[in-house]
Specification:
Blueprint: H1 3-7, E1 15-19, H2 23-29, H3 34-55, E2 59-66, H4 74-95, E3 100-105, H5 115-128, E4 134-142, H6 144-157, H7 165-169, E5 182-185, E6 204-206, H8 217-228
Bound molecules: 3-methylbut-3-enyl trihydrogen diphosphate (2 copies) and magnesium ion (MG).
Length: 239
């Protein structure tokens, strides 16, 4: 395949999201603890973000921890929190020099998130806020329905009237991101699990069978090719 030609294709998505699913199953298949799947999965997040960056994609959203994931055993949520902290340290070193902006979607006032995670996230957002080339949106302690309620409550507090899409969207975590073109959920599960119900109304969804730790560059390129072959009609008639 001619990668340069592929990269120049005007149908290249501008904003893609990964619902990174299947870490636990990947580990189980190999007789490893679930934590091993999360570790390889976290390393793969960085790898696939780099692939997306090299392809010229502008925004990447990563669904890494849902509000509902607190239902898991404490040992697992503790380990995931530790991984998020490590990820943020790595991203600071790797991505800041490349003009990358990092934002977070999710409730960071929630004290179930360790203080270190909350502080590091805040600092990363602050230190990269002037950057613009590429945006990584880390969805941690995120719920799509919770996000919509947050927006509604903020609008009520601000005594806003005649709310339209544009006014509403200013109160979403994704306010400064491009429209979400493509959602890739690994592991074969075909549901949203509370991921961006507002933003995905006209997104394309692709469900590769592979578990997230095994999802590589070729799989991403394959998914993008499928996306490029779709006819996005947005309600119109497009032959
Ligand atoms: C995705 O993998 C990571 C998170 C949801 C945090 P899972 O942990 O959901 O893995 P499976 O679905 O149990 O295999
Ligand atoms: C969705 O995966 C959430 C994330 C990837 C962060 P889950 O593994 O939590 O979803 P369900 O429970 O299978 O719907
Ligand atoms: Mg899962």
């Amino acid at each position: 395949m001619n990668l340069e030609k592929f990269k120049a294709d005007p149908r290249m998505p501008k904003h893609i999201a990964f619902i990174i699913d299947g870490n636990g199953r990947w580990a189980k298949k190999r007789g490893l603890p679930r934590s091993a799947g999360h570790k390889v999965g976290a390393d793969n997040v960085k790898k696939q973000i780099e692939v997306a960056y090299d392809l010229g994609i502008k925004n990447v959203s990563i669904y890494a921890f849902s509000c509902e994931n607190w239902k898991r055993p404490k040992k697992e949520t503790d380990y995931l929190m530790q991984l998020f902290e490590e990820m943020m340290d790595e991203y600071r070193e790797e991505f800041i020099k490349r003009d990358v902006r990092i934002i977070f979607s999710g409730d960071f006032n929630d004290t179930r998130l360790p203080e270190n995670v909350r502080n590091k996230a805040k600092k990363l957002v602050e230190d990269t806020k002037e950057k613009s080339e590429f945006i990584i949106n880390l969805c941690i302690n995120y719920g799509g329905r919770q996000e919509i309620l947050k927006a509604v409550n903020e609008l009520i507090d601000a005594k806003e009237k005649n709310i339209d899409f544009s006014k509403f969207e200013k109160h979403l975590y994704t306010a400064e991101l491009l429209p979400l073109d493509l959602v890739i959920r690994t592991s074969g599960e075909q549901r949203s699990s509370n991921f961006m119900p507002w933003q995905t109304t006209y997104s394309e969804w692709i469900y590769p069978k592979k578990n997230w730790p095994a999802f590589g560059k070729r799989d991403l390129i394959k998914a993008i090719k499928i996306y490029m072959g779709r006819n996005r009609r947005f309600g119109e008639i497009k032959e």
